[in-house]
Amino acid sequence: MPDKPIAVAMSGGVDSSTVAGLLHRAGHSLIGLTMQLWNQRRLPNLAPEGAPTGRCCSLDDVYDARLVAQHLGIPHYVVNFEERFEREVVRPFIDEYLAGRTPIPCTLCNNSIKFGQFDEFAASLGADRVATGHYARVERDDRTGRYLLRRAADPDRDQTYFLWGLSQAQLARTLFPLGELRKSEVREMARQMGLPVAEKADSQEICFVPNGDYAAFIEAWFREQGAVRPAARGDIVSTSGQKLGEHSGVHHFTVGQRRGLNIAVGEPLYVISTDPAAQRVIVGRNEELLATRLRATGANWFPFAAPSEPLRVSIKIRNKHLAASATLFPASDPCSVEAVFDQPQRAITPGQAAVFYDGDRVLGGAWIS
Q1: Where in the chain is the domain with CATH 3.40.50.620?
Q2: Which of 56, 57, 106, 109 is labelled catalytic?
Q3: I need a surface site. Which of 184, 296, 326, 345 has the fewest CB within 10 A?
Q4: CATH code for residues 6-192
């Protein structure tokens, strides 16, 4: 009986295209699937000079994915997930910013769409596994039967920060063929296989925010919906409560931000926190951004259902953050956790993720509250 096919998430970039090439060369039966997540013709005023470059999921990417599939001789389909993407990624992104937090839409997309609806659709086509171009590694612990997530061999490309929310069922069906490779090796493999995207630049921006201006996107989205955005004007105040200026919405600000405050007091000031209920933005000196503790909720764990005792870990609080040593303390709620860092960390930001590591092993993650 022939093996069931593997569904390859083909974004049109060099990474996912190389995954398809490697699996095809190894003799696997493949189905190429490209996800249509966002209508790039929406909100055209955000990109007045024409279609921006550097985004994923554009029409050019769909075309490139099809070219690669034709080159390899595998079936290719475009699947439209726009409705769920709007409901489970875009709208929560907007709600989080309006609530004074700084969300990570790529993590939401991975959890709900790329390893959620995509996996379900692939299974409906008869595929028993899915493969993506993420730089990460997955393995099964034979002792416990649980699936583990590990950092990629290339530390500069590791994407585990965005994958901490995957379930055991999702990991069990997922292949990360690039986890042991470096980007330079992937590029060379793409060239050797003659892939038409071998020299294509990597995508950099969030697919639905064409100019990188999150606040402008939120304003444009409300106009498109014909909805009135809740009143958001308020005061910029010091940590002692002194009014220093005014702002047009807390969604314009994130913890650690310096630019765009439009106030002058003779020294650099940074956003320390926001208070959406009172429509206040609290600013202070750089040293006031330092903290040694965090609390996080909505935890997901890989080696165990939940930690039962304090753990020594390293924690990333942003994708580009150098993981810092800390002690992790279980909370009374198994989905919550508290951490105390050995050294103060700058700009621990509500809405971002805290991802917990033991060496190259990902223990889990949670949303900073």
Answers
A1: 6-192
A2: 109
A3: 184
A4: 3.40.50.620
